[in-house]
Amino acid sequence: MRVGAKPFDLTVLETDVMDERKIFCRAVIIVGLLLSWQLAHGASAPIKVTLHIPSKSLSLMPYYFGKDKGFFAAEQIEPQLVMMAPPTAIAALVGGELDFSSTTGAATSAIMRGLPLRRVFYVQQDPVHALVAQPEIKSVRDLVGKAVGVTALTDAVGMSANVILRANGIEPGKVTLLAMQVTDNAIQSLITKRVSATLLAPPYVEELEAKGYVKLAEARTYAPLSFIGLVSSTEAIKKTPQKVYGMIAALHRTMNYILNPANRNEVIQYVSTYHKIDLPLAEKAFAAQMLGYSKDGSKPRASVEKEIEIYRESLKLAKTFTPEDLEDMSLLRKVQEATGSKNR
């Protein structure tokens, strides 16, 4: 050792090494905790699903309302609502480009033609669409020789139009049905007089009536067709039942809230804001829509059987079908059991 040099303090050196080891161990623990949190956070991240909607009518309002209220998030579901024509949506659903569709009508035509789809939830058990016409048209029979707008020829709107026309003694071909693809197009075609009438849901019916248009007929008077609900592929029901269950649970939670009389004022205010209409009109439209909502996500068997016969006749199908061929209510029953709801 050099003369005058200060000797090493081994005790201090050992202490420094121990401190560094402690710091390192603490850092490892912190990193481990952060990774664990990230893994746990990732596991609980919402499942993103794509859902087809044909319009923004009150029939579809539960999807928007449930999303805004956080009912879908509570079930770990993040729905992305995509508007498109029902036939296009059904093709996308079968092809795996969509997770779900809300149009039970177009899905029914597809199912009865052999495509692997099933209804898994009913937002509506009865139709609320009405046939709305130009102010100068006073009866359904006045439509002979004229054009009527529908979203699609083989969905519930197109089927209802055919049933209404036949029930009023109008033979096929006497009225031209034009496929409008989406509701906005149907409304615009009515306003511009491209069509003489079209089938619409609340609040569009009430808005147009206030402007002088005429409500000629209500779909539920003629046929108990299903318009809005939740449709899934049979493959998704088998391979990703948790995703389908989450969607059903979120819709079930949403509908229970909407149907609760204690929440009526809040829902009407939402309708008013959502559609940019005044409260009295929102209340009138909501009252009309309430007539069609399912109380528990299901539909009476007799109504489904009647619906099957209407589709068979319209599609000219000889094959017979049962409600089980159209729907799979197994996951809805599980949701009902979990929430203490009454099964049908």
Mind explaining what this structure looks like?
- The chain folds into 2 domains: 47-126 and 226-339, D-Maltodextrin-Binding Protein, domain 2, CATH 3.40.190.10; 130-222, D-Maltodextrin-Binding Protein, domain 2.
- With 344 residues, the chain is an alpha/beta fold.
- The chain has helices spanning 10-43, 61-69, 86-94, 104-112, 156-167, 183-191, 204-210, 219-222, 234-239, 241-259, 264-275, 279-290, 301-315, 323-326, 330-339, and strands at 47-53, 77-83, 100-103, 117-122, 130-133, 147-150, 176-179, 197-200, 214-218, 228-233.
Q: Can you tag this structure with a few keywords?
A:
globular; D-Maltodextrin-Binding Protein, domain 2; 5-stranded mixed sheet; disordered N terminus; alpha/beta; 344 residues; single chain; 50% helix; 2 domains
Brief description of this entry?
The chain has 2 domains: 47-126 and 226-339, 3-Layer(aba) Sandwich (D-Maltodextrin-Binding Protein, domain 2), CATH 3.40.190.10; 130-222, 3-Layer(aba) Sandwich (D-Maltodextrin-Binding Protein, domain 2), CATH 3.40.190.
